[in-house]
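task queued by scheduler; priority normal; single chain, no ligands, no partner chains; default sampling; output format set to structure tokens
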Amino acid sequence: MGNSKSIEFCPTHGRHCLGPLSFHKGVLGTQVCLSLGSRRVERNRETFQNGLTFSSRPVRVQEKIHLRVELCDQHWNGALRVGFTSIPSSPCGPLFPPAMAIPDLTTTDRYWASPVPSSLNMPGAKLRFWVTPKGVLVYEGPNRVRYLLLKGVDVRSPLWAIIDVYGQTRAVLLLGEDQKKKRCNTRRSCPVPPPSSVSYEDSCMCVNKGHPCCTSQGNNLPTDPIITTQMDSSAERDLVEDCAVCLSLRASVVLSCGHRCLCHCCAVRVTAEFGICPLCRLSIR
């Protein structure tokens, strides 16, 4: 994705600013278009795929990527996918970028991506994702609850963000840092002007209205891919040590799906507010 050298400082906002963050203009899915200074990406409403995008520059470890969901079409299954890559991609052939981040990219080396729950991707929803120094992909939804999406991101090389505008998610907007929040000695991306309000008029909220609409593909709607991660026994033990929501307490609750991924306090909250496992999204009985 062009020059892999990261921005050292922003001349406008000082040495703690990493510079503007936008979508890469040269590496785009075939069914998307950019606007608002390459900060907004929208996919063709006639398809659920070919919406892959990448960040215009490398992102730092712990640098939060802020997004707002602009448009949503509920007649598709699945939603936004987020992640990182250590490969500075370029438009090197007719098959890149591929149709989907999962499994087209994630089955190859140095690409890491995970789906975001559809229930947390309504129009106007703000979310953040980042990678920790230990290579953990963390997602924070509009409810401020944090989810561990996956482990194993190689943070030794520069990383570019992956944002796959997939399924129900048809358009997203990159948000900059809040100018009002001053964090001492914390490096962050450039602030941006406050975005206009999101309108529901151009989104298809058919499921919320109780009658999924018909599309040009009839009932042949895509489903979420089954994601399996091959881990050795030590990596699997590490995965269940921390609560997938708070990332601080030990995971002690085994859900009906078989995942031991929540501490007691978070299990009560997740069951009451969402009713699904944060790892596999199956209903909690």
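post-processing summary
- The longest strand covers residues 65-72.
- The CA atoms of residues 130 and 224 lie 22 Å apart.
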